[in-house]
Design a protein that fits this description.
Layout: E1 15-20, E2 24-29, H1 30-42, H2 44-58, E3 68-76, E4 79-88, E5 91-100, E6 103-112, H3 122-132
Parallel strand pairs: 2-6
Antiparallel strand pairs: 1-2, 3-4, 4-5, 5-6
C-alpha cells in the first residue's frame, strides 16, 4: 500500500511531510527522511510495515503495541512531551504528536535500525527529545 500524500502544508524549516490526509500528517526531520528512503531501499518489508502503521495512525485507528508504543514523558524546553515509537518490524522511529499549523502531526526525529529488544535505547530517546525542541510551541 503506497503512502497517501494529499497536500503539502507550509512546514517549519527542517521538517518534510511523508504522508498526510485531511486532518493528520506524518512529518520527519530532514535526516529522518533520508533514513526512511534508505529503509525503503534496503529493508522493503520494514518499509511496508511502517507505511501501514503511518496510514493507520493517519486514519485514527487504535494501534497495537507492536505498531505504536509510548516511550514516556520527557522534558523539552520546560514542557513535558510524550515520546512514542512508531514501529515497522525491526525498525523504530521515535517522535511525538504535535500540532503544527493546526494539523495533528507525528514528528519523526530519531530512528533505531535492526531493533531486537523491546526496550528503547535511552540515548536515542534523549536525541529524539532534543530534536523536537525547535517545534515545541
Amino acid at each position: 500500500m503506497p503512502p497517501r500524500q494529499t497536500r503539502d502544508k507550509q512546514l517549519p524549516d527542517g521538517l518534510v511531510q511523508l504522508v498526510s490526509n485531511d486532518t493528520r500528517q506524518v512529518v520527519a526531520t530532514d535526516n529522518m527522511k533520508t533514513a526512511f528512503k534508505l529503509i525503503q531501499r534496503k529493508k522493503p518489508q520494514c518499509s511496508g510495515a511502517l507505511k501501514v502503521t503511518f496510514n493507520r495512525w493517519l486514519d485514527g485507528f487504535n494501534l497495537t503495541p507492536n505498531q505504536f508504543k509510548s516511550e514516556g514523558s520527557h522534558k523539552i524546553g520546560g514542557k513535558n512531551v510524550s515520546l512514542y515509537a512508531m514501529k515497522g518490524k525491526e525498525v523504530r522511529f521515535y517522535g511525538a504528536e504535535l500540532v503544527i499549523n493546526g494539523v495533528l502531526s507525528f514528528v519523526l526525529t530519531e530512528v533505531e535500525l535492526n531493533k531486537q529488544k523491546n526496550k528503547a535505547d535511552p540515548q536515542k530517546l534523549k536525541n529524539a527529545a532534543k530534536r523536537l525542541y525547535p517545534y515545541i510551541a
